[in-house]
Write a structure and sequence with these properties.
Length: 446
């Protein structure tokens, strides 16, 4: 299947983005030439997935498509119980409704924004225990998604199992640059958590990409298949939430997979209220069927190799041009270090957002700010939170763009990089919402 993409002029784009209060989320898709806003739900489905769509079983209860998905998830992840949900944050909502209470803390490796949102919404705290190496964008480390065991143990000692419902491992770690977590680290987190009797859950949105990096970078696993690695990875967890819009290779969908039947029953009640009956969770039967097929495809080495090499190709071009990006190159996106790219724009004027707007005006490419706007205000002090890294993320949709698109993106960024000294100021907020402000924030030129 192919889609039209839309060209425009620089003058058009300058006008459009101003009309949209300099928020890239506000742009209609036909005003975007190459859309790198997200890799979530934006990929192309395969011939086999489309044929599954034709034979989806739309029964309200006991659908064959549900049974097929359940069996696939059981085989791929090892988890026994399945609750489908309409997307990843819905899975978070259902699981956290069962487990996260006011005053709790949830340690992990740079929780994704909706995950953190769901934790903070329940008046609990997400504590980031990612290794310090992750926050130095130029430092090469094979597993920058890893959890620092000392930081984690400090949290365990301070709060104990009464206040810690679980530890969350996000694979790959989106917020720190699509960076993987090693099996060795996962195993150590499990051992430590066993000592403190704290469950371990995964946010598995990009679990297959994580397994690819394990195969490539963790010697003990170089001869294992992706499916073998995935099974071992999840064997150290009590369950997972999943946004199937990433490594499920579908346009919508998610799930919770668990080992504990009691927890499954509690989550099931929340699932029925929020999502739908146990065997569809807000999805059509055909969506469940396409997801089952997607999970089979995303856990094949050849698919992962072509996907991740495409991102590596773009990243290497940018490195060649001297553009500062998060290294090593991650699994689903390129993360440009905006503070280094635009040294004259102060942190208070949002350098990553400023770079995102420049790239849109330059070439019609839409990325997304992973920086101060996204980090939101501290819920208590209401002060801006300045994250360690201020990044512009260029997320690459799966099975969608070609190498020539990558070349175009690289040259567009180089053009801006060559005139970076002329960019001296950024933007200020003219309106923002209470929570998850980045989606709707209004900005004006400083
Ligand atoms: N967890 C991770 C690691 C994610 O990256 C996302 C979504 C979610 C959970 C939530 O899943 O969107 O299906 O509700 N990430 C998208 C992104 C939106 O652009 O990175 P969802």
């Amino acid at each position: 299947m192919v889609e039209e993409i839309y060209q425009s002029t620089k003058q058009d784009r300058e006008k459009w983005i101003e009309e949209k209060d300099y928020n890239l989320f506000n742009l209609e898709s036909h005003k975007v030439f190459i859309d790198l806003l997200t890799d979530s739900g934006t990929g192309a489905m395969s011939d086999k997935q489309w044929s599954e769509m034709m034979t989806g079983d739309e029964s309200y209860a006991g659908s064959q498509s549900f049974l097929k998905l359940k069996e696939t998830i059981n085989t791929i992840t090892g988890f026994k119980f399945l609750l489908p949900t309409h997307q990843g944050r819905a899975a978070e909502n259902v699981l956290f409704s069962a487990l996260v209470k006011e005053g709790h803390v949830v340690p992990g490796n740079s929780h994704f924004d909706t995950t953190k949102g769901h934790i903070e919404f329940r008046k609990a705290h997400a504590i980031d225990c990612t290794i310090d190496e992750a926050f130095d964008s130029e430092l090469i480390h094979p597993f920058k998604g890893n959890i620092d065991l000392q930081k984690l143990e400090n949290v365990y000692q301070q709060y104990g199992k009464e206040k810690i419902p679980f530890t969350l491992i996000t694979v790959t770690c989106n917020s720190s640059g699509g960076q993987p977590v090693s099996i060795e680290n996962i195993r150590q987190v499990r051992d430590l958590s066993n000592q403190y009797e704290i469950p371990v859950f995964f946010d598995g949105a990009r679990f297959a990409e994580n397994a690819y990096f394990i195969k490539e970078r963790e010697t003990a696993f170089k001869d294992k298949t992706i499916k073998e690695i995935v099974l071992e990875m999840f064997s150290y967890g009590d369950g997972m939430t999943m946004s199937a819009k990433k490594d499920g290779l579908v346009n919508i969908g998610g799930f919770i997979a668990l080992n504990n039947e009691e927890l499954y029953k509690i989550c099931g009640n929340f699932g029925i209220i929020y999502e739908g009956y146990l065997s569809y969770g807000g999805l059509a039967g055909r969506d469940l069927a396409a997801l089952a097929q997607g999970l089979q495809e995303s856990t094949e080495y050849t698919y992962l190799q072509s996907r991740i090499k495409q991102i590596e190709y773009l990243g290497n071009k940018l490195i060649e041009f001297g553009i500062p990006i998060q290294q090593p190159i991650g699994g689903h996106a390129i993360f440009v270090d905006a503070v280094k790219f635009l040294p004259h724009v102060p942190r208070e004027e949002f350098p990553a957002q400023t770079l995102g707007i420049e790239l849109y005006k330059e070439a019609g490419i839409r990325g997304v700010e992973i920086g101060t706007i996204l980090a939101d205000r501290d819920p208590e002090t209401r002060e801006n939170r300045y994250p360690k890294l201020e990044l512009l993320r260029l997320a690459i949709p799966r099975r969608t763009y070609f190498q020539s698109h990558m070349d175009y993106i690289a040259v567009a960024l180089k053009n801006i990089f060559d005139r970076r000294d002329e960019i001296k100021s950024g933007y200020e907020i003219s309106w923002e919402s209470e929570i998850l402000r980045h989606f709707t924030v209004k900005l004006k030129k400083k």
